[in-house]
Amino acid sequence: MSELRFDELRGEQVVYAIHRQDRTFLPSREHCPLDPTRPGGPPTEIPLPAFQIAVFDNRFPAFEAPRGAAEVVVYTDRHDGSFATLSAERAEALMWVWRHRYLELGARPDVDYVMIFENRGVEVGVTLHHPHGQIYGYPFLPPVAERELAADERLAGCAPCELLRRELADGRRVIHANDSVVAYVPQAGRWAYEAQVVLREHRASLLDCEPLELRELSGALQALVRGYDALFERPFPYVMVVHQAPTTGGPDPDTSRGHLHVEFYPPLRTADKLKYLAGSEQGAGTFISDTLPEESAAALREAIARAA
Amino acid sequence: MASASGKRPSREAPQRSGQSSGSSGEQRKQPAARKPPSERFGELLILRTSKDDGRALIIYSHEEREEPEEREEPEEREESEERERT
Questions:
Q1: What residues of chain A, 66 to 105, have a C-beta less than 8 Å from chain B?
Q2: Which ipTM did the prediction report?
Q3: pLDDT tens column, A206-232
Q4: CA A208, CA A210: separation in Å to the nearest integer?
Q5: Distance between CA atoms of B34 and B48, rounded to whole angstroms?
Q6: Chain A partners of B77 at a C-beta cutoff of 8 Å?
């Protein structure tokens, strides 16, 4: 069981999950725990010879009941590939899986915030290469979610709605769009190729989306990650995080607080150079970037078009 | 409206086998009495089970059109580059 300690100086929780020190680390292809269990082969996390999408409780959880949740979402039974190389139908099905997990985990009294995410690439700490993501059910409202709610207060309304309006009016940083979704490099992006994929309509969570919106969200996400891979013609590492309304309980949960969007934090600043979080980023909390979002957006637009 | 636990009520409860939700895409009936029990959620068929150590395992299935699951070029490229890096 993890232990929570509150850092009074920074005003934030720190999670101690010391059992994760022993988690599986870059196993050989033959011993991938996310592969299906094939006849005569070693047992894996999924005791079936084939499957489409599997979700299970993390064997090395950062959170677990009765204080949160940690799940693994396996996108496919094929070991190779990535979110970018899934079929359009599988990617769309994944949006429904995310929606279902948000519904179930968000209804739990010990989960105040459901965060769906994917770490891709050893550069961001991936320990298993099989295409998969994760879900954390936080037993508290984490700082980034708190700041997003504070942004709503500061802008006197839904901040993502307002920021999307500004990005569309400016246009220079928009990198992809369809009828339901717009992708752009944010005006004050911290990572060189940071991107946000935002629902055009105000949707607090995946639960509020129409089926067509889920389809177009998955299409936009795949267009972006394929563009990422095309940008430097190499597998592009990233952290992908789905931001949705908190699921904090209360007498009158306000589901208008929050706007579904997906944020990407890629650590590469060039084809072979990583952005490190060093003195200013860690000591002052202030990012210093070597690139301008407008220039990154132009490069990403071209890469997305090339990969289409 | 809050639930008894103070949590938001389920706006889209999973449908047990044989039930229909009343919304499009969730109305296909499953054979009654088929085991293990499955649920439908939107376009998904859900099968709940558990692992030997008691951890929950949920298998989601979705009717997919016949087309290659993976795009060959990126996969091959990634595979070769992963080998180079390791």
A1: 76, 78, 80-82, 84-87, 89-90, 92-93, 96-97, 99-100, 103
A2: 0.93
A3: 999 999 999 999 999 999 999 999 999
A4: 7
A5: 14
A6: 229, 233-235
